[in-house]
Amino acid sequence: IPVFFMALVFCWAYEQTGSLWVPILLHVINNTMALLVGWFPLLIILLLVLAVLGLVVTILMVPAIREAWHQLMEKRALFRCVWKAPLFWLVGVAFVGFSLYMMVAR
After folding, report:
1. Mean pLDDT in each 10-residue stretch from start to end of the chain (106 residues)?
2. SS (HEC) of the chain
């Protein structure tokens, strides 16, 4: 599930900038932070604070996110097609359900 949301962020960064280097840089930053947390466990507190701030900003920006989503749907024929594809959503829901089951089963 976290990888899915990271992929959404990477896609958004690519759509906003038109450059593949931005998502690559975000990926490098993510991996670097994961490595540093392994070495400095207290760094997790800073990451949690940043995550909560990110969540708050996301909630505050819901109207703008919704508008950007609708504009993207209108601009990209592929997204309009996927939006109406029941098999795509069925597989997506099954994947999320299986991921949740595997997390609980551990």
Report:
1. 82 85 90 85 85 86 83 68 72 86 82
2. CHHHHHHHHHHHHHHHHCCCHHHHHHHHHHHHHHHHHHHCCCHHHHHHHHHHHHHHHHHHCHHHHHHHHHHHHHHCHHHHHHHCCHHHHHHHHHHHHHHHHHHHHC
What is the reported pLDDT for 25? 92
CB 43 within 8 A of CB 37: yes
Burial of 103 (0-12, 13-18, 19+ CB in 10 A): exposed
Q: Tell me how far apart the alpha carbons of residues 3 and 27 are, in angstroms, rounded to a whole number.
A: 11
Please enumerate in sequence order all residues whose Cβ is within 8 A of that of 99, keeping only pairs 6 or more positions apart, or say none: 1
**Which residues in 64-93 are b (16+ Cβ under 10 Å) and which e?**
eeeeeeeeeeeeeeeeeeeeeeeeeeeeee
